[in-house]
Amino acid sequence: MSLKKTRSRQLKQSISEGNAAAVMQGLGTDFVPAFALRLGADAAFIGLLSALPQLLHALAQFVSIRLGRVSATRLPVIRAGVFLQVVLWTSLAAISFFGFSQSLAFLLLVHALLTVVAGVINPFWTAWISDWVPEIQRGRFFAVRNKFTGFVLVFATFLGGLVLGVFESFNQALFGFGVLFVGASLARLVGLHFFLRSSERRHPTCPVVFPGWGLDLKQAPHFVHYVFYSSAYAFSVWVAAPFFVVYYLEDLGFSYPVYAALLTVIAFGSYLSMPYWGKMSDRLGSQKVLTYTALAIPLIPLAFLMPFHDAAYFFVIELFSGIFWAGQKLAAFNRLIEASPALRRPRFVAWYNVAVSASAFVGALAGAVLYGFFRENGFTVFGIHGLLWVFLVSAILRLATAILFLPGLRARPLPNAGQLNDYLKSVTYLPLKNMYLVLQQDAYSTVRVTGHGLRVLERREDQVLDRVEYFNAHALRGSVHKLRQLGRRAKPRHRRR
């Protein structure tokens, strides 16, 4: 098979595997904090549930580095890690179905192991997929891949909320979580199937053994500064990230279907805006997309400080959250690939994940400490209290990180007053316009495909009806013929005189 056909097959299988991973996230990962709250966890435990896996995720990178030293192939490590995730999701479902006195501790352990396994296989997957995607098509390909996975994530999250709502109405929410985790395990098993069918593209100059633990920074002069920026931004984000679910389910008292709908809106915004960010990344460079979204993301926690508590208001917030984070994640991933050399990419990605995960761990712990401090002292200023103080601190830190670190990542300065109009259009009007066009195009494609399917069904139905009519008419003619024969036999014959 030629290289072009092999690459095309690998990229299609990567999209299929990504869809399976999106189902795992939509049915499993996104509902783990809500499951912990259902088991009786408090905000401090939610912070620990988010912080500890991040620390273990950082330590898991050293395992990745060690594995990279003894093996130049990536797929065996990926396959083993995905199989372990299948087992872990199954054990998490067992907690929901059977339960025991130490369910929260076991949940923390399993969730941490899931994060560790993901941290081990992430550098290998990044290196494996980057070998197959041409450099000039990375922005567009990952945008298309994220678009498909985003659509699947929307559907899976919405379905998960419906399942929880049904079981909650029968006072069996824990059993509903078990059903979701079984679905996550099966989805990961499907992903393992696609990895088993995948192949590897080996570099002829890639050595089998990687000596040492360090990095040759001469090969990547911009890598260190990018790591500092990503680490600081991860810290500022994770100060508040673990506690949005607490705010929705505990402070505002939203139900599981409403919470799932909010997650669905995030995934929906990411799905519709991903093609726009992919085009922007290929046309203007990933650095500009990174800058635009990093300056817009601090607005998300600030919006929670407004005196509005309706679900519709938070739907709008989460829609823009999905838009901004879609561009940020896409640009950050492309920027990481650009900043790391191809032959040593697993190791560079591993060290990058060490720094980012450790910063996220510290940020989640800091957020838990801040929440405990503000809750115990009862500070209330202009209606800001409890978790809202944590959101405010996170927004300030996000904005400060973007202003301090982003100028060093690019030769051109940040958007100034003359570029303010272009910046505002790039993060508000243009994404929404592109989302409308994507939605319109997808709706047209869906209607066209559906219409084609209906036309096929109508043709088949007409053929069936024609056959039925033919057989009925044939049977009717046969019946009439038999009746005529019977009539002739029954008709009395007159003798001739």
What's the topology here?
Layout: H1 3-27, H2 32-38, H3 43-70, H4 75-97, H5 103-132, H6 138-169, H7 173-197, H8 223-238, H9 244-251, H10 256-284, H11 286-296, H12 299-303, H13 311-339, H14 345-377, H15 387-405, H16 420-490
Helix pairs in contact: 1-6, 1-7, 3-5, 3-14, 4-5, 4-7, 5-14, 6-7, 6-10, 8-14, 8-15, 10-11, 10-13, 10-16, 11-13, 14-15
Considering the chains and any ligands shown, give keywords for the structure.
497 residues, mainly alpha, Growth Hormone, Chain: A
**Roughly how many Å is the radius of gyration?**
29 Å
The CATH class label is Mainly Alpha
Question: For the report, how would you describe the main beta sheet?
Answer: none
Instruction: Give the number of DSSP strands.
Output: 0
Sketch the topology as an H/E string, one letter per element. HHHHHHHHHHHHHHHH
Helix content: over 70%
pLDDT below 50 for ≥5 consecutive residues: which ranges? 203-213, 411-418
Give the CATH H-level superfamily: MFS general substrate transporter like domains
Indicate the CATH topology.
Answer: Growth Hormone, Chain: A
CATH architecture: Up-down Bundle
Question: How many domains, as an integer?
Answer: 1
What's the N-to-C terminus distance?
Answer: 94 Å
Total of helices: 16
Strand content: under 5%
The mean pLDDT is 78
| CA-based shape | globular
Secondary structure category: mainly alpha
